[in-house]
Amino acid sequence: MTDTVGTSYDIVVLGGGSGGYATALRAAGLGLNVALVEKDKVGGTCLHRGCIPTKAILHAAEVADSAREGEQFGVKSSVEGVDMGGVNKYKDGVVDRLFKGLVGQLKHRGITVIEGEGRLTSPTTVAVNGTTYTGKNIVLASGSYSKSLPGLELDGDRVIASEHALTLDRVPESAVVLGGGVIGVEFASAWTSFGTKVTIVEALPNLVPSEDADASKTLERAFRKRKIAFKTGTPFESAETTDSGVKVTVKGGEVIDAELLLVAVGRGPNTAGLGYEEVGVAMDRGFVTTDERLRTSVPGVYAVGDIVPGLQLAHRGFQQGIFVAEQIAGLNPAVIDETGIPRVTYCEPEVASVGLTEAQAKEKYGEVETLNYNLGGNGKSQILKTAGFVKLVREKDGPVVGVHMVGSRVGELIGEAQLIYNWEAFPADVAQLVHMHPTQNEALGEAHLALAGKPLHFHD
Ligand SMILES: Cc1cc2nc3c(=O)[nH]c(=O)nc-3n(C[C@H](O)[C@H](O)[C@H](O)COP(=O)(O)OP(=O)(O)OC[C@H]3O[C@@H](n4cnc5c(N)ncnc54)[C@H](O)[C@@H]3O)c2cc1C
């Protein structure tokens, strides 16, 4: 698509992922004239290589688990095998439908999508394929890429990143997953359900290390039960590819042989060579630094999504995009509380949280109260045969400042948990609200009843 040189927009957005397209949609909804520059496919990492395809694979994994475990529920079933062609077809179908929907939405709202690689050339211009597009405001939303470790090259075959893992045409016999954070444990979980022998290697002392210590411990127990091997507190040393796979050496000299190595050690900001520094945008280790209103150091230039230091999550990008569009339109939106952004790790069992961990809350408030409600007391969780907990952290005599949950399907409970945190609810506020029986949601209600001093199905 070409446009005349000098075409001017209210906003030019550089990058059409979660952050960028949300900015464009909201801005267009506010009557602004928007151009969205995208070099690949609108929808970005989340839609094409992240949230959506991984969750489709995890759902297929859940189906495999259900078939394998049917006998526990009196249903005679078993897994004959996993056809990755079929799994990929299902996954790609979901992505394609959402992609078409997004393209339609952008068109419907009159957003000009400019295909090609953009480069910031001044505080008000982006060049794409030799054409310069002018924006009264520019929003940087160029996203992130899979990082590796020094000396560890991603060859896309034996040593792979998440984007390669999503297009595998086979279930690997065995895999080493480097990194026990969210992306690592999600693949470890799905592959185990498909029959892969997985070993996770994590340098920090726990899996999902940014979560509350109780959540990490409970997930580790569940993974042990699922026979997912993990070595925590174990830094990676080197990897050597062979004809049949990869040999991974960890600190201490142990060598783990596997068919492939998935490197899931985090995501770096995609900002190099895009002109940001030349135009004077302040950066910190490749990230674009902003104030709380997402303004960069250059007036009129904003940044959203994974290039802004903080949680790298799609819904954070959506919210930041909405915020920036409203800010540019002069609506003075409320500043986003990063701590109030919900987090879900979609492995089996799921880990979901919002707010502060117990350790963070103690550091902030000194004295806190906590309550762990075991899913053993929750009817629906027993029906599902899942174990785990709902943990509440409250400021002493104050509102709930953290909710942490582990168990199958608890990710779906985060909606209520984030309202509780973001509306600064006291346990007594939630305790008087009625939760449907039998649901897993009830566990949240019961935890608040107990913390408000009137426990129902709860004993210490
Ligand atoms: C395996 C995996 C699983 C994930 N699961 C979840 C999940 O379950 N939930 C969740 O909330 N988050 C998840 N995430 C994170 C989520 O995908 C990101 O936080 C989100 O995509 C960030 O949005 P963004 O707009 O900042 O960047 P991106 O989505 O990366 O989009 C940036 C876009 O900019 C384009 N671009 C870059 N440079 C240029 C240029 N010079 N010119 C033109 N276009 C350019 C890119 O092609 C891309 O489309 C996951 C990520 C991965 C990798």
**Spatial shape:** globular
CATH class of the largest domain: Alpha Beta
**Distinct ligand kinds:** flavin-adenine dinucleotide
Helical proportion?
25-40%
Number of domains: 3
Number of helices: 14
Give the N-terminus to C-terminus distance in angstroms: 65 Å
Do you know the CATH topology of the largest domain?
FAD/NAD(P)-binding domain
Largest sheet properties: 7 strands, mixed
DSSP strand content: 15-25%
Uncertain regions spanning at least 5 consecutive residues: none
Kindly report the name of the CATH homologous superfamily of the largest domain.
FAD/NAD(P)-binding domain
Quick check: average pLDDT?
97
Count the E strands. Answer: 24
Q: Gyration radius, to the nearest Å?
A: 23 Å
CATH architecture of the largest domain: 3-Layer(bba) Sandwich
Which structural class is indicated by helix and strand composition? alpha/beta
Features:
460 residues, alpha/beta, FAD/NAD(P)-binding domain, Enolase-like, domain 1, 3 domains, five-stranded parallel beta sheet, 14 helices, 24 strands, 32% helix, globular, binds flavin-adenine dinucleotide
Fold blueprint:
Elements: E1 8-14, H1 18-29, E2 34-38, H2 44-49, H3 51-68, H4 84-108, E3 112-115, E4 118-122, E5 125-128, E6 131-140, E7 144-146, E8 159-160, H5 162-165, E9 174-178, H6 182-194, E10 197-201, H7 213-225, E11 229-231, E12 236-241, E13 246-250, E14 255-258, E15 260-263, E16 267-269, H8 276-279, E17 283-284, E18 287-288, E19 301-303, H9 314-328, E20 343-345, E21 350-355, H10 358-365, E22 368-374, H11 379-383, E23 389-395, E24 400-407, H12 414-422, H13 427-431, H14 441-451
Parallel strand pairs: 1-2, 1-6, 2-3, 6-19, 8-15, 9-10, 9-15, 10-11
Antiparallel strand pairs: 4-5, 5-6, 7-16, 12-13, 13-14, 17-18, 20-21, 21-24, 22-23, 23-24
Bound molecules: flavin-adenine dinucleotide.
